Amino acid sequence: MAEKYKKQDISRASRLSVAPMMDWTDRHCRYLHRLLSRETLLFTEMVTAPALVRGGAVHLLGYNPEEHPVALQLGGSDPQELAEAARLGAEAGYDQIDLNCGCPSDRVQSGTFGAVLMKSPDLVADCVAAMREAVDIEVTVKCRLGVDEQEPRDTLPAFLEKVSATGCRRVVIHARKAWLQGLSPKENRDIPPLDYDLVHQMKAAFPHLHVSLNGGVETLAEAEALLAAGLDGVMIGRAAYHRPWEILAGADERIYGRAAPVSDPEDIARAMLPYIERHLSDGGRLHQVTRHMLGLFAGRPGARGWRRVLSEQATRDGAGPEVVEAALERLTEAA
Ligand SMILES: Cc1cc2nc3c(=O)[nH]c(=O)nc-3n(C[C@H](O)[C@H](O)[C@H](O)COP(=O)(O)O)c2cc1C
Fold first, then answer.
1. CB neighbour burial string for 211-249, b if at least 16 within 10 angstroms, e if fewer
2. pTM for the full predicted model
3. How confident is the model at residue 72, as a pLDDT?
4. Is residue 157 within 8 Å of 166, Cβ to Cβ?
5. Do the domain assignments include residue 178?
6. Domain count, the chain
7. From the CB of 142, is ligand 1 less than 6 Å away?
8. Do the domain assignments include residue 25?
9. 2 domain residue, yes or no
């Protein structure tokens, strides 16, 4: 059994977190990220409460014990259903439960959850209160600055006021609005402008809240600067996924003052091999794991060859660890 994290550990861990990303931060990705950083808080992809509670899809809660500290992100808008989903998550051993109030996709909008909840702070408060009542681990909220025509300088403080009145002590703010009409989910991660100042203002207005900033953070140096400027945490999504070595391997030392667990990305690739063997012997496919490893050598000599071997060969029937060995050879040749 993995050691259970205490509340204060999670608060510390959330100085840096890897964002929840559908189809990306699955259990294989998180296993890889955990090899790179022992300290960083990892998030699952969003799991919808209806899928868990009505659909009985509890397999979506599967994770590797090595992943702790790990937060389960839930999507939904029915307080009782979310409470039940949170209970299932806590029972499965997650360290924190997060409510998604930031995802703009159509599918999610149709179920009245995600970013559209920014328009219903009372409902969000009911959801968070019901979830908090159901579990004894921390319940957090990941939100946007606002949506559509909202004026975030007015609506975001009102939203946070309601959320914090439930006893919720930690939020992640994606520092841009979501425009629910006319933009794709991808465009909604790039086009609405970032406003870091407003997140700083929210920290000043709600000093008791643990506030993490998310959105557009590209380097550890930027994360360090945001922490030094008074924020409690920084969440990184795409940069951590595409450049995991650069973002995560230095995190333990620079963000947490602990020794870095590894000094060479090649060691990480090799450390994935026993995990890959296990996955294959459980009936999984190589590509399901290696697709998350494509960026491991980003910016290093041979990175392109590494990526090419993995992307061309890992999807073939019967592909196994020898593909990773072959990809590593490309790096040695390049060096
Ligand atoms: C492929 C992808 C999937 C995402 N899925 C989710 C999700 O399930 N839940 C969520 O709250 N945000 C999701 N996001 C948004 C990220 O969590 C994050 O807020 C966003 O990418 C901005 O951070 P970044 O600029 O560091 O990437 C997703 C982003 C990407 C790129």
1. bbbbbbbeebebbbebbeeebbbbbbbbbbbebbbbbbb
2. 0.97
3. 98
4. no
5. yes
6. 2
7. yes
8. yes
9. no
- Ligand 1 contact via 237 beta carbon (within 6 Å): yes
pLDDT value of residue 1: 35
- Which of 90, 84, 155 lies closest to 117 in space, CA to CA? 155
Q: Same domain, yes or no, for 241 and 271?
A: no
pLDDT reported for residue 221: 98
Catalytic residues: 103
CATH number of the domain encompassing residue 292: 1.20.120.1460
Residue 195 CB contacts under 8 Å (≥ 6 apart), including other chains: 145, 152, 175, 176
Question: Per-residue pLDDT for 26 more than 90?
Answer: yes
Q: With bands split at pLDDT 50, 70 and 90, how would you rate the model's confidence at 8?
A: low
Instruction: Say yes or no to pLDDT of 178 above 50.
Output: yes
DSSP-derived secondary structure for 126-145 = HHHHHHHHH-SSEEEEEEES
pLDDT band at 106 (very low <50, low <70, confident <90, very high): low
226 and 303 together in one domain: no
The two three-digit tokens of residue 230, written as one number: 């008074």
Are residues 183 and 270 both part of a single domain? no
Domain end, chosen from 196, 222, 256, is at 256
Strand partners, 142: 100, 172
- Domain that residue 276 falls in: 265-334
Ligand 1 pocket test, pick from 43, 48, 189, 243 with the greatest ligand atom count within 8 Å of Cβ, gives 189
Is there a single domain that holds both residue 68 and residue 143? yes
CA 162 to CA 168: how far, in whole Å?
9
Q: Give the nearest ligand 1 atom to 217 CA.
A: 26
